[in-house]
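User: Fold this; tokens only.

Assistant: Input:
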Amino acid sequence: MEIKIENISFWYMSKRRKVLEDFSLQLQPDNIIGLIGRNGQGKTTLMKLLAGKNLPDKGTILYDGEEINKINVINKIVYASDELGYINRKLESIVKDYKLMYKNFDLEFAEKLLELFQLNKKVRIKQLSKGQKSLFNFCLAMATRSELTILDEPVAGVDAVSRRKVYDVILRDYIEHPRTILVSSHMLGEMENMLSHIVILDNNNIVYDGDLDEIRNKAYKVTGEKEKVENYIVGKNVLYKNIGALNSMAVVEEEITDNIREALVKEELAFENLTAEEYYVFKTTKTDSENMEELWKN
């Protein structure tokens, strides 16, 4: 399922706040895509728009050329978060509802997932912790085998062991049943091994949209004597710098070429490529770093 978002805008009227404005994005089918960003950057808003839970005030969202409000399109999409209504209902009752709603719902697989995450289907929603609600919604969503599976912070409130299981399930089930899986998080490092493509949001805008492998060549870290580092970064796009009394470090956003390597060696400066997680952190906290420096200025 090819997804094309064209110049959408969305307002939360109750908050009188525009979250997305003239926002465009194209997602290729049959990929595990990470939607990465800090809290409040528009991830959930975008996912709810993609799921048809909200409609854009402007612009269009197309699925294989069809608009989201078509019934046959909506039936191909599932959205999961840590939100659950019907607090007095038992888990097994909601599982049965999903079996009726989604034609490809795999009941046996759903029950195996509940067992894997130690979720008792006889208990009621109100008895679940935040993390258990996240896991229950995750189990339901994965068992639908929907063409577009949207997982909004699927590990919110979940312990480290269960988070690892979630990522393993996503990757293995994608291999067995290829489809488009969109996963949001603010923790890129944990998910790197299963993602083929990532979209990074900051201030409700896209700051990176591309393959995971390519992001590792977007910036590099340079360290060395204070004066040499300061001289080297003049005129460059610096995402972060830590200027010490003797040694200093800076993160420069540009592809590291052979010429750059030679220049760094000549200046006796050490350098290394960033991990995807490091690039995300430095790229989305540049303003924070600048503001942090102001705390100690007279």
